[in-house]
């Protein structure tokens, strides 16, 4: 009886991961399929269809230029997903490299990387992102680099702490005694042990990246006004809310919120399963 009771939290946590993962896969599949199969002609201005409310023909209504809002939202979410995957991957790689180097390469390297982390954390994210995006020149490269270089610090600290706990382990000391280089030790012994932390960090970072991408495009950085980015849709729709045309801002915002919450919930569930205190309890 006690054994069955002890396994219930683990089974429940794994079931939650499956449910969350299935939800995210369904959302992503719908967005990608819509991006591929929705007709781009719906993105062209049509003065006869200006500011129509939601209907069967236009589930999200139309905007001030007569463009189908549902098509623009789906295209914008697909763009956010692409930017989110690339940006979160870059941030995760930066976190892994700097976190492992800080823990394995001695006090001087650790001091320099710790100073860099403290400096980066001390700069407000939004200001730092705008500065980097403006410096690079906007567009997808500006948004990707601007967000990637402002989201690696927390995960790097976690990786650094994890590696410090295992750097004096017997198998690490044996590898050093055999003359193995720090690069070999990091790739062969350390990286596999921190991969769960990196996976959780990537998933948890993803919704933040999407939100900050929307914030940058909302403020006018990155894309032209014709690009169907979620931030641009929100920026265009906000002035019309007071006129009763709520769908122009509310529906894109709800779509973004649904996607972000799906990934955030998945990250929390994966972290619960991979947490040793939970998975071994």
Automatic annotation (TrEMBL):
Transmembrane domains' residue ranges: 17-38, 77-105, 112-134, 140-159, 190-211, 244-264
Chief location bin: membrane
Keyword Lipoprotein among record annotations: no
Top-level division of the source organism's lineage: Bacteria
Keywords of the record: Cell membrane, Membrane, Transmembrane, Transmembrane helix, Transport
Gene3D superfamilies, per database record: MetI-like
CDD domains noted in UniProt: TM_PBP2
GO biological process: transmembrane transport
Occurrences of domain ABC transmembrane type-1 (ranges): 77-267
Entry annotated with the keyword Methyltransferase: no
UniProt cross-references to PANTHER family, sorted A to Z: ABC TRANSPORTER, OLIGOPEPTIDE TRANSPORT SYSTEM PERMEASE PROTEIN APPC
Protein name according to UniProt: Peptide/nickel transport system permease protein
């Amino acid at each position: 009886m006690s054994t069955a009771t002890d396994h219930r939290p683990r089974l429940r946590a794994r079931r939650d991961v499956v449910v969350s993962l299935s939800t995210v896969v369904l959302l992503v599949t719908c967005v990608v399929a819509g991006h591929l199969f929705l007709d781009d002609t719906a993105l062209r201005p049509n003065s006869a269809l200006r500011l129509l409310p939601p209907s069967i023909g236009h589930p999200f209504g139309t905007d001030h230029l007569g463009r189908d809002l549902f098509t623009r939202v789906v295209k914008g979410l697909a763009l956010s997903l692409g930017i989110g995957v690339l940006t979160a991957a870059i941030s995760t790689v930066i976190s892994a490299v700097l976190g492992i180097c800080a823990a394995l390469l001695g006090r001087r390297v650790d001091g320099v990387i710790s100073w860099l982390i403290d400096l980066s954390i001390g700069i407000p994210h939004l200001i730092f992102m705008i500065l980097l995006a403006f410096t690079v020149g906007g567009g997808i490269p500006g948004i990707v680099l601007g967000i990637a270089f402002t989201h690696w610090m927390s995960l790097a600290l976690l990786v650094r702490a994890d590696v410090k706990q295992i750097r004096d382990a017997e198998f690490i000391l044996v590898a050093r005694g055999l003359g193995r280089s720090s690069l070999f030790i990091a790739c062969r012994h350390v990286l596999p042990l921190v991969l769960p932390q990196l996976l959780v960090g990537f998933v948890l970072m993803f919704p933040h990246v999407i939100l900050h991408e929307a914030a940058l495009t909302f403020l006018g950085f990155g894309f032209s006004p014709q690009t169907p980015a979620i931030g641009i849709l929100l920026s265009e729709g906000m002035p019309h809310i007071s006129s009763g045309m709520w769908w122009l801002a509310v529906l894109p915002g709800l779509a973004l919120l649904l996607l972000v919450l799906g990934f955030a919930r998945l990250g929390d569930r994966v972290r619960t399963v991979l947490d040793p205190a939970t998975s071994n309890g």
